[in-house]
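Hello forum,

I keep getting stuck at the same step: I have a sequence, I want structure tokens, and every attempt I make locally crashes halfway through. Rather than fight my setup again tonight, could one of you with a working pipeline run this one for me? It's a single chain of 540 residues.
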Amino acid sequence: MAYQALYRQWRPVDFSSMVSQEAVVSTLRNQITTGRIAHAYLFCGSRGTGKTSTAKIMARAINCESPNNGDPCGQCESCRRLLGEESMDVMEIDAASNNGVDEIRDLRETVKYPPQHGRFKVYIIDEVHMLSASAFNALLKTLEEPPAHVVFILATTEPQKLPATILSRCQRFDFGRIPAAQIAGRLRQAVEGAGGTATDTSLNMIARAAEGGMRDALSILDMCLGYQNDVTEELVRNVLGTSDRSFLFRFTDALELEDASTVMRMIDELMRKGREPMVFAKDMSQHLRALLMAKTCPDDLAALLDLTNEAAEEYVGQAEEMTVTRMMKMLELFMSVETDLRWASSPRIVLENAALRCCLRTQEADTAALNDRIAQLEKQVAQLTEKIKNGVVAAPAPAKKEKAEAKTAAKKEEAPRPKVLTPTGRSTDDTWKEAVNTLKKNSPGVYAFLTGGRFVGCDGTLYRWEANPGMDIYAGMLNKDDKRSLIAAALTEAAGVESRFEAVSAGAGMKSEDDGEKSLLSALENTFGKANTLVQDDVK
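Reply #2:
Ran it on my machine without issues. Output:
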């Protein structure tokens, strides 16, 4: 006997074997049991949710000689004929290929003939939204007042395309997407029935990839079993062409750090493994959606996404390092990739372009980017305030002598830094300010990086800039040859002699414990203006 696909082997034969759709099944059972059979039904829902299977079960049940709680018995002559597809009492019509008015006229001619064996003649019209406007008009009268022995069951994935006149003549039932946990349970039965083995993680991966469709899930499992009887996570990823979760986490970390070189290397790794840019863009969109949900509702994440508690904690941990604005911007970019790839001659370039745009947050000047930077500064201020609160320890009042010494030390600390002059006799502080103003006009992207740190001094002709705490990535960006040369040129012009530039990480150029606070205050004043910045010590 020829091999039969899994989705055909596991097609339900009665309502008891249906997965999910409890509300629909309960209503149909009650109608069959009480004999309140309507003349027209409309089954709506996404693909693979059981619309056609339910229509076939109902066609057998209403013609069954001894139904059991609304289920067909499967033993009577009518059930055997219908299961063997030997009866003319149930007609399946594909509206996609029979969508003309002539086919509907032929149907109107056949409905007047009574059934051969059962009590009802059932017409199952699949993808009914594909009928033409004239075909719908031809069907209206028959659908409204069919003969007593005729039942119409219409199935569609797009009910919004049906005319209101058709909708008003049918009893409508909406089939929801099947939960991933229930799909995984049926897949477990199918694997065991096929004599194979599978891990729970691999079955959950298939269930999530099916997006609520049982037929898609069984088809993916069928392909996996075609490779080998032992279904693993790696096998499922290879069949689907998707990336593993750890790769998505590492890729997102690189985007957040604006590490363009790592991002490009990881995309090259994907392409060498034969992954499709479209599939990866979809995976990233799903990953960023999970991060947004982790940011907004971390307590319910495991239930919402069908994740383990450990996986949910991993998403929450990564989401804490990113702002909502940042994640939404990245999600929009990767969702646009899915659309752009349909018309792109080089899909890889489209993916690389979107990834690089995610890395250029600091060079964007739109409202969303500015809000993102403000949110980052607010986060740093909150962290610094918390550190100050935790670091203050109550101590007894010092003696008079100790007070005098403390005042003397405070005066020494508050003493201004001695002016350092350039070889031409000009102050290095003035030279730095003039160079920064020049960069602000000519290179706003470089200037944006410089606002994330402070000028810490000059050693001869070498000017040093130090990043603020938590912004060491800026030092790496400014030390790149192109940006370093731009800053050095501005310094040379301002100083009047050949000058050099060097960016160092936070702490490398610090000279006092308060420099971290001063550098953050300097960044706030550069961003919002000194007149708009108010620092208030609320530690009690």
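The chain is about 55% helix and 10% strand. If your local run keeps crashing, start a new thread with the error log.
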